[in-house]
Description:
- This protein has strands at residues 2-3, 9-10, 14-16, 22-26, 32-39, 46-50, 54-60, 67-73.
- It is mainly beta.
- It has a four-stranded antiparallel beta sheet with strand order 3-4-5-6, with no helix packed on it.
Amino acid sequence: MSFDSENSITGKLLDEEKPGKERALKFEENKKIELREYRCPLCYKLFFRAKITSALIEIKCRNCKKVARIKSLEF
């Protein structure tokens, strides 16, 4: 898997857009990974897309300089 300058994923993963906040990556074996968007709560700028099972992340928004904490416990 590699990333190019337009932030699209190339290689064995096929990028499949879905409307809304969820994005699915489809493997060749028809397995899907649901990616959730994490955004700044103040200015709604996108931080990143990921599937996080257990984490506490602290991130500073580049746009509004607010420090946000992301707690995720998905199973």
